[in-house]
Amino acid sequence: MDNKLETGATAPAFTLLDADGVEVSLSDFAGRRVIVYFYPAAMTPGCTTEACDFTALRPDLETAGVAAVLGISPDKPERLAKFRDKESLTVTLLSDPDRTTAAAYAAYGEKINYGRALMGIIRSTFTVDVDDDGVGTIADAKYNVRAKGHVERLLKDLTV
To answer: Residue 111 contacts by C-beta under 8 Å, 6 or more apart in sequence?
Structure first.
């Protein structure tokens, strides 16, 4: 897949519903840095690990200059609300049921799962600097990340 976003690329704009059914847009974070991460499904082991790690390290991420963490999956808002409440998550969970935003970030496509090729969400994380006009620029893009230990590595990269 050669359409991956790289440092310096314009971050695709999006407006998605959060766990409470409220629209959230990338441009809402004008003048700030955000983390946008894509995960396959709420309430699955790897995705729970990653979301809980983002929640646990959120104060450290904020100290490193990150204004918000936006987790995007194909799950419907109702499922995201259950996930947030069950795990006491403080990250913003967004619903991308048609996977349009994931595809725009090259976070949806063919992947290998247990030796088989299939179409799905590619666990990916983007650090996005949103300018004062609400346009995002990719500061860092990581594809095919492993859930365990990922947030700690990301935080380390942000504080170097």
So the answer is: 117, 118, 119, 120, 122, 144
Catalytic residue among 26, 35, 42, 47: 47
**C-alpha atoms less than 13 angstroms from C-alpha of 130 in its C-beta half-sphere:** 22
d(CA 158, CA 109): 27
Which residues, other chains included, contact 10 with Cβ-Cβ below 8 Å and sequence gap of 6+? 135, 136, 137, 138
- Mean pLDDT (whole number) for 1-15: 90
- Distances 137 to 5, 23, 42, 140 between C-alpha atoms, Å: 10, 21, 27, 9
Q: Collapsing DSSP states into helix, strand and coil, what is residue 61? A: helix
Give residue 160's pLDDT band: very low, low, confident or very high (50, 70, 90): low
Confidence band of 1 (pLDDT split at 50, 70, 90):
very low
Active site residue 47: yes
pLDDT tens per residue across span 100-153? 999 999 999 988 777 888 899 999 999 999 999 999 999 999 998 888 888 999
Q: How far apart are the first and last CA of the chain?
A: 29
Closest CA to 71 of 119, 79, 113: 79
Label the pairing between strands 66-73 and 33-38: parallel
